[in-house]
Amino acid sequence: MLTYLFSYLLLMLVIMNLAISTLISMQFLMYSNSGSRYEQWIKPIIYVAMLYTSMSVSYHFIGVVAHEYLLALLIFYLVDKKQAILLVIITPFVRMLYMLFVDGHLTTVNVLASLVVAGMAIFYMKVFDKYVSNQTLSMILSEIFIVATSLFFAPFIPHVVIYSIFNQPTNWIIRATVAIITILITRKVYFQVTNLQNKNIQLQKEVIFDKLTGFFNYKKFEQDILLGSDKQTNTGIAVIDLDYFKNVNDTYGHEAGNKVLQEFSLFLRESLAYKLNSKDLGIYRYGGEEFVWMFDPNNFSDIGKFLKSMQLELSKLPLGDQNHLMSFSAGVSFSKNYKFNLKMTFDIADDLVYQSKKTGRGKIVIEG
């Protein structure tokens, strides 16, 4: 009995590690932006590999296959419900293959019983998820019922249990207890890891984003200017400067000025997002009230006309608590004219916005 308990303890540790690795991998793939067309196949492949490993480990540790639905259950509650249902459907087929390799044969009864258990597992997860508000309790109840169903169908599925549930009730108690402990520890560790990941993502955002406006900051701009200089594609750079912003700061204070900058930033974001239909707008806060916008000229038939329409909209939009009516000056240049050198392209656009300000402000100067 002690040997059996020790084997189950080792099994719990192995399954826990497999579960945490699987959950983190699934979560990473779910929120990654790689856009790869093969990505949808990676998750089932990871799951099948981990599932087969847990089956093999449990069979060699305790002589039976145990907790084969635990991985899918954790994915259902913690990562992705739709994906988990697919993985539950896959599970009995992986189990059948495992039985086929171990026993060398598979009967119709084995197949039907395995499919019934999978169907019941889906039923339990959906019902408890819907009617039990506490997530942890819902997970535990689902796993207990899945374990009970697996043991009930033990006579029809090889390697589920050494003795039937009726002849050895301790097997049921041990298996359910181990499942509950595994769920509780895995859930806690998973949330700790994901919270750490979220904090790291937030720190990365703080490094490259300007807190006040939400746009990329000067450091990110420098990086992209240097890295982007090797690209042999035409890039437009517009330097946009808010006119007479110093007067707002001097008259009403920096807090009022910050409010104006925030609302102007929101105006830029909404204007460009509507046109580009994209979250990546390529806007940087270069410094103070000056912004740099890197864009694809192919998206605009007439960039000057587009910027003028933005100027017209801004002239009607009161900014800040004092309802300031503001304007902006802009200088625009294109990298194709400078051998695709973004640094040189930016320098020209910066000179052009300076010309705009010298000749009366509120103007758009486009090279050529």
Cα distance, first to last residue?
87 Å
Order of helices and strands: HHHHHHHHEHHEEHEEEHE
Describe the global form.
elongated
Discrete helix count: 12
Strand numbers in spatial order across the main sheet: 2-3-1-6-7
What helical percentage do the residues reach?
A: 55-70%
Structural class: alpha+beta
What is the strand tally? 7
Percentage beta strand: 5-15%
Overall radius of gyration = 31 Å
- Which quaternary structure do these chains form? single chain
Instruction: Extract low-pLDDT stretches.
Output: 162-167
On the 0-100 scale, what is the average pLDDT?
85
Q: Largest sheet, if any?
A: 5 strands, mixed
Helix-strand layout with pairing:
Blueprint: H1 2-31, H2 39-62, H3 70-78, H4 81-103, H5 108-131, H6 135-152, H7 169-208, H8 218-227, E1 236-242, H9 245-252, H10 254-276, E2 283-287, E3 290-295, H11 303-315, E4 318-319, E5 324-325, E6 328-334, H12 342-358, E7 364-366
Parallel strand pairs: 6-7
Antiparallel strand pairs: 1-3, 1-6, 2-3, 4-5
Helix pairs in contact: 1-2, 1-3, 1-7, 2-4, 3-4, 3-6, 4-5, 5-6, 6-7, 9-10
Describe the structure.
- It is a single chain.
- 31% of the residues are buried.
- Helix 1 (2-31) runs antiparallel to helix 2 (39-62).
- 65% of the residues lie in helices and 9% in strands.
- The longest helix has 40 residues, at 169-208.
- The protein has 368 residues and is of the alpha+beta class.
- Mean pLDDT is 85; it is low at 162-167.
- The strands form two sheets. It has a five-stranded mixed sheet with strand order 2-3-1-6-7, with helices on both faces.
